[in-house]
Specification:
Elements (H helix, E strand, L loop, with lengths): L8 H17 L7 H23 L3 H27 L5 H24 L5 H4 L3
Length: 126
């Protein structure tokens, strides 16, 4: 059973990314809870939330929500860069998460392009 959006690979990856961000930021300085930590967590969590919320709407509206999800993903990039600059993460951790963001961005872009043209079975692959 379950919801259709839960079958989407892009949704599963977005939830995984948000979960990793929450784990990653647990060790950040306490004074950053309302700064970088809060902003990065909100931005990363916004990605799967927008995918889920948009999936129950028309195709046109779904595209809007997917674009919002991608915008939230883009917001994570400078936040991740700031985490590196401030010494909260090392270069390898930055690279790993940057690549995750890049891959997820490609998944979202592909899904946005395919919403009107693809069958539901193809969308589940993204």
């Amino acid at each position: 059973m379950g919801f259709d959006f839960e079958k989407l690979k892009v949704y599963k990856e977005a939830v995984s990314l948000a979960d990793e961000v929450y784990s990653l930021t647990k060790s950040f300085p306490k004074e950053e809870v309302f700064g970088i930590v809060g902003q990065l967590r909100r931005a990363s969590l916004s990605v799967p939330l927008n995918i889920a919320e948009g999936s129950g709407r028309s195709k046109r509206e779904f595209k809007v929500y997917l674009k919002r999800a991608r915008t939230s993903l883009y917001e994570c990039v400078p936040l991740l860069d700031m985490c590196l600059r401030q010494g909260f993460i090392d270069p390898e951790t930055h690279h790993y998460h940057y690549e995750r963001l890049n891959t997820l961005s490609k998944f979202l872009s592909a899904l946005i392009r395919s919403v009107n043209a693809a069958s539901p079975s193809v969308n589940r692959e993204l």
